[in-house]
Amino acid sequence: MANAQTEPTRFGFRVVNVYPHDMSSFTQGLVFHEGFLYEGTGKRGVSKLSKVSVEDASEIMSKPLGRRYFGEGIEIVGDKIYQLTWQSHMVFVYDKNDFKQTGTHYNPTEGWGLAFDGEHLILSDGSARLQFLSPEDFSPVRSVEVTLQGSPVNNLNELEYINGEVWANVWQTDFIVRIDPTTGSINSLIDLTGLSERTELGSNEAVLNGIAWDAESERLFVTGKHWANLFEIELVGR
After folding, report:
1. Sequence-distant (≥ 6) Cβ neighbours of residue 193 within 8 angstroms
2. CA angle 110-115-120, nearest 5°?
3. Which one of 84, 153, 162, 212 is least enclosed by Cβ atoms within 10 Å?
């Protein structure tokens, strides 16, 4: 296990495949599940949950949020989809198969990103803290502060749980950090500088955000808010 001062491993990237992405989508949550992408988007009045095709970005199913809500991260646990809201303290629960709402939970903090480690939901709220929650009632189990060589790292945004690590976009940067969920220590940095230059950007808020992992085929997908493309990438050591 790395101690607080251990230098993190650094990675660059190689683009493997490029797919279309709906540039109107203010991407907040991204999940690959059983061959499809599930995406949660933000902005009041246009927030929604969608099931989309990877290959052509066609929308297979969608569920709009009420106009008062600003949608955030999503995660799938069994047949349930959880969707956070930014500042409304609401967590919506849907049936994965038809997007019918089956419940709600209260979240006392802001909602940013959401992941699942096989036992607990993991939530980011824009701070340096990750919260581990019960999927049953969203009650807190524990939390951990995320640090880079001993210093806290704020603005943790969209999350993905990959092979025992929590991966997080750092909002308004080109970096994804890989986090030890037990200690909160960042063990690796993924530098995606230049990726945004390979796609069309739909607004001045079009920052990197969105990590999805196809565990079966070991494919890594990334995109951004208001990006015209979804990228399948491989990591390259530095």
Report:
1. 174
2. 95
3. 162
**Scanning the structure block, which residue is given the tokens 């824009």?**
126
Distance CA 210, CA 223 (A): 5
Q: How many other CB atoms are found less than 10 A from the CB of residue 156?
A: 25
The string of pLDDT tens digits covering residues 96-131 is 999 999 999 999 999 999 999 999 999 999 999 999
Q: Any idea what DSSP says for residue 203?
A: S
pLDDT digits (tens, 9 = 90+) for 171-194: 999 999 999 999 999 999 999 999
For residues 209 and 231, what is the distance between their CA atoms, to the nearest angstrom? 12
Diameter of the chain measured on Cα atoms: 47
Q: Can you list the domains of the chain with their CATH numbers?
A: 9-237 (2.120.10.30)
pTM, whole model, 2 decimals? 0.95
